[in-house]
Fold this sequence. Notes:
Blueprint: H1 3-10, H2 14-27, H3 33-40, H4 51-59, E1 79-91, E2 96-108, E3 124-127, E4 138-139, E5 155-158, E6 162-165, E7 168-174, E8 186-195, E9 201-203, E10 212-213, E11 223-234, E12 239-249, H5 252-271, H6 280-304, H7 314-341, H8 350-356, H9 359-363, H10 366-379, H11 406-439
Parallel strand pairs: 1-9, 1-10
Antiparallel strand pairs: 1-2, 2-6, 2-7, 3-5, 4-8, 5-6, 8-12, 11-12
Amino acid sequence: xxxxxxxxxxxxxxxxxxxxxxxxxxxxxxxxxxxxxxxxxxxxxxxxxxxxxxxxxxxxxxxxxxxxxxxxxxxxxxxxxxxxxxxxxxxxxxxxxxxxxxxxxxxxxxxxxxxxxxxxxxxxxxxxxxxxxxxxxxxxxxxxxxxxxxxxxxxxxxxxxxxxxxxxxxxxxxxxxxxxxxxxxxxxxxxxxxxxxxxxxxxxxxxxxxxxxxxxxxxxxxxxxxxxxxxxxxxxxxxxxxxxxxxxxxxxxxxxxxxxxxxxxxxxxxxxxxxxxxxxxxxxxxxxxxxxxxxxxxxxxxxxxxxxxxxxxxxxxxxxxxxxxxxxxxxxxxxxxxxxxxxxxxxxxxxxxxxxxxxxxxxxxxxxxxxxxxxxxxxxxxxxxxxxxxxxxxxxxxxxxxxxxxxxxxxxxxxxxxxxxxxxxxxxxxxxxxxxxxxxx
Length: 441
């Protein structure tokens, strides 16, 4: 019976008060042993508890990290977000855009404020994202399973109750590509970033004009963001921010490896029409080599560019049309070679002879060609197909004799073949010019 007063004495007085404070400190979320000793008025190291621990313990009494903070009106506090883009890359083959960015997320909890004078002028503290409420931000139009929730980085809390969370993110979204003007194309892609549980997610236009920042990040070697817009989309139980990015391709390298060879192909294809008619074999060989090179470029484009319905790049159309024109040019050169080298027994029709020896022939520079050919035939007797030994006859005469010699007939056919070459040069030049204008080359 003498033990009861002793037990009553142990649990009474200061012991009971210290025990109550100890239980209260343990019940505070995030509290540590230092918090418990601070509340009890003692410290294990014979010193006072740190001001930061005391502030932390006082702020998060009865705090529920699973509930969104409320404002004075009892409504869920607004969450403001800014998208800071560091780097972008567009995968043309798969139609995806990968964005490396930081999300600057802010919200306010009016119950988490303090007076800095009472806590040694501490104006902000760092918190773990796992111990407080954070919005579950995700990418709605994600093209990859890896684009889940954000990384749990530290959160900054100011004495005004403002939370700042800046987690990094790598988002991969589907993009509707338009490759018609490749490689001078501009692609417009959208990022739909939001939360299924937060219906009052807004863009932070107070800190950035458009709610998006893309000029301070690392520039891509191939793409440059030239425009960015932010639209707010709200539904009954969720909302998201739709960021529209317009990226322009840096095309300096493509000019050197695509457009410069295209110009060379056109020049070589047109120059074959100015070779002598009897060099048809050389013309066909040049056209054949050009066709092989152009076909190689088309195979390169097939490996580099995606197959898009009704959106074939104009440069591919240009190379395809060039391959077709080279094929037609080869057919023309075969006909020119036949006209200039075959043993003709019939004369050139009189109507064609009048054109060849008239103003039309002068426009095609045939008179200069015929004079040089006549001088060459007088000095070179070994080229039987192109030598004209009628030196007394004027080759420009429409009908030098009632019965012309076989060499005079061959000369008229060679002159006709040259005229076909010159007319083809003009026609193909206009065709290439129109094709270049249409394709923007």
